[in-house]
Amino acid sequence: MRQIGNITIDLTSSGWIFGVEEKFLEPFKKWEDHYVSLGDFQARLRELGADETSIHLTVTNLQYMGVHLPPDVETRESRELYAQLPDQTTLLRGVSLTQPRLALGTISNSPKKLCVTIPYPQRIAKIKHDKYGGEEKVEYEQGILPLLVFSDRTWIPPTPNNLMSLGYIVDPPLLPEPRWSKESLERWMKGVEGKVEPIEVFKEIVTVYDEYVDFPEDDGAVFNALFDMNTYFHELANSTAYRLFHGPKGAGKSKCGDISSLISFNAIKAANITMASLFRNASGLGASIIIDDAEGFGDPERAQEYRSLLNSAYRRGNRVARTDKNTGAQQYFEVFNPITLCSIMGVEDVLEDRSVVIQMLPTRSAKGSREPIPQDSRWQDIRDKLYICLFQHWREFDQIYGGLENSYGLGGRDWELWKPIISTALLCGDSQLAMRMAKMGKRRQSERLVTAESESRELLILRVLEEMVKHEAWIRVASIKEDAVALFPENDVPKWITAFGVSQVLRRLGWKKSKRQKGGLAFKMVPAEIGRVLERMGAKTDKPDEKGETLDEETEG
To answer: Fewest C-beta in 10 Å: which of 199, 329, 333, 368?
Structure first.
């Protein structure tokens, strides 16, 4: 016998007995035997005279005692469902589910399985009891039953009691809104859903994007269809590319994000969610995160938290530390998520390096005025097909991705980000489609290298100026060139470092005030302006901020 506050707890041959003073509840074995909800249990302890602290501590200890009570809202159907489960040990042996993501997970027993936790809509029976514990009234409403569904069409409820009996301690599972329809799920579990070919569902998604979005480049709809498909398979890869819709206002960026949110795996719109929920959903749901207005993260603290998530979530195994504001304790979230960004101004270099940039432009075509309707049944139909496609073809994707060699000319980070997309194209059975995506990746790679080369020239000249200019002065281009040349070995000076090349760089950076001197062209230089240009380019300077003239004055001489 043990005492928790004013509640006594005793284990007898008949089960657990809970009492307050000389009043006792009937013995509890398994909740399936008694159909008593957690709320009912708490209410009956109150009737015995238990105080709230004692009730709270008792409920906290129930799972460690082997007593599991259902939530307040529970169906008779689900009780029967739970009571008829197959052997749990057989299903879960070897599974590492310390914090099961409601996404994909591979099971280490033989044969290898895939599992996805699915919210399962159910009719809810809310049962009220009289003071003697007898059933008084039953009221029905809609509710959700979580099911851990396996690729061999077996399933279990991922309750803490089930998993703890096998030695696993888990957090209560998160539940997204149902994304796989109950009807389609049940057909699949019965084996009567029919075959879903990846190429067919891919074509449907391409058609949807082509209907609503006027992409400036031909492969826009194709890439986005493959990206959305890959959100269902991404847990089988080691990395995932981010997608950045970039363009002016009215170009259709948000519309693309809306379409993706109706198709992608466990999609959430980050604009309408707290940071705490965002991190929990990213870690627990394997969610496809869509961030509209990516340059406007709000307050600096929120922006920094976004960056910590975004800088890490592209690669499997990365964790993000976050401080709990209430307790001050450090929390660590494992994040690996497909992320979509919509931005007018673009994003910082670190994020862009992890992103496939889709340039968007305003259009006057009929597509520009069409808006997707979330209630349209086509979205549910596409998601149903994608879930079935996942369960029917996950082994193929696993083999394709695992065996894919880089024969496409993509290097380093680019291969890491494009490999899942190319693998998804090959899953569709189309090697030409895979080659199109590889060519798209190489174009993006080349564009970025050209930009990087241009920026490196500008930063080099700025660093030279930072060292040369100690006070306001006219500085000859020839002198700047000489100092730039001195930074390189004699036989390794870049060909662009000439008087003409340096003057072109200076004009691109905004210097307009110039004049001819003995010895050639000279520009008016002010230390503070050099510092401000460096800061604008993201290269901080330690030079003191000195007041001086602006750069946009008319040219002299």
So the answer is: 329
Which structure tokens are listed for 379?
Answer: 């979205």
Same domain, 259 and 167: no
d(CA 469, CA 457): 18
What tokens does 169 get? Answer: 């301690």
* In a shared domain, residues 326 and 455: no
Does residue 401 share a domain with residue 478?
no
Q: Is residue 442 part of a domain?
A: no
- Three-state SS for 449-479 is HHHHHHHHHHHHHHHHHHHHCCCCEEEEHHH
In order along its 557 residues, the chain shows pLDDT tens digits of: 778 888 888 877 667 788 888 888 866 654 444 445 666 677 788 888 898 888 878 877 775 565 655 544 344 444 444 444 333 322 222 233 323 343 333 333 435 677 777 877 766 555 565 655 555 565 666 667 667 777 888 776 655 555 554 444 444 456 667 899 989 998 898 888 889 999 999 999 999 999 999 998 889 999 999 999 999 998 888 888 889 898 888 888 999 999 999 999 989 887 767 777 788 777 777 788 898 876 655 556 667 777 778 888 888 878 888 777 777 777 777 788 899 988 877 666 667 778 888 888 888 888 888 999 999 999 999 999 999 999 999 989 999 999 999 888 887 778 988 999 999 999 999 999 999 999 998 888 777 655 555 557 888 888 889 888 888 889 999 999 998 888 776 777 888 889 988 998 898 888 888 888 887 899 999 988 888 888 776 665 444 444 333 333 334 44
Q: Which residues contact 77 (CB under 8 A, 6 or more apart)?
A: 122, 123
Same structural domain for residues 283 and 318? yes
Range of the domain at 259: 198-429
Specify whether 66 is located in the same domain as 89: no
Chain centroid to Cα 549, Å, comes to 46
